[in-house]
Design brief:
The protein has about 280 residues and is mostly helical. The protein contains eleven helices and two strands. The protein folds into two domains: about 25-135, no CATH class; about 135-275, no CATH class. A hairpin with a 3-residue loop joins β1 (about 170) and β2 (about 175-180).
Amino acid sequence: MKQRWLVAVIGLPLLLLILLYCPVWATMLLVTAVSSLAAYELLKVAGKNVSRELIIITAVFAAAQVITIYCRDLLPEDVPAMFFGPLPLILSLFAASVITYGKNNAVGFSTVSAGIVGGAFFPAMYGCILLLRMHDSFGRVYVLAPFFTAFAGDSLAMYFGKWFGKKKMAPHVSPNKTWAGFYGNMLGSALGMLLLGLIGSRFFGYTPNYIMLALVGIVSNVFGQLGDLSTSLIKREAGVKDYSRLFLTHGGVLDRFDSTLFIAPVIYLFVCLGII
């Protein structure tokens, strides 16, 4: 319990400091670190015969993809962004698989798949946090949306599951999750987005549409719960409790920011469409 409070007391203010008061490049560095660590954790848990070199390659390309997002205005317009991260990573992983096939240290397709998901898709999804922060007008408001949605939803889900939870939602994937917690999670995300609207209006000159904020919170929360269950499924198949011990008893990056991983792209889509 003391370790959990220690992580919360130190981690939350540091996160807010980086997202709100530091330059955009600080958010880029944060997202780069999170993406690289997520790729590392996924490879260690879901891959087989994962060498140090393969982890480094995957982490480097994950970082390259986030940096590409940050420097997108400096890149040639006629060169697709995939050539700066995802494509070289995919080619490298398949090359390693072909070269090592039939050997004791063979890189199997499960490892290739984990590397592609961790090194290409995860940075693209986490990169939406950086894109939200880079928004011209209300980046400091939008960048908080995935976290308000995820944390508020998780908090209310815990209480709804405790008070009303009887029917299990996905007992073979996550035995503690209930349908009551599922609906409480959505309600918590809606309330979290309403709170964000109030904060944005009070401190950042944001004009909120509270109905749309609540709806976006509910919709994005469904994807967030899918992310939570998906990462839990991978752990269950691998037979591990946590992805790592980076955050002590809180687990690793994918234990703490699994729902945020799936929520950020949805929030970014709604921002691009001008819905919030």
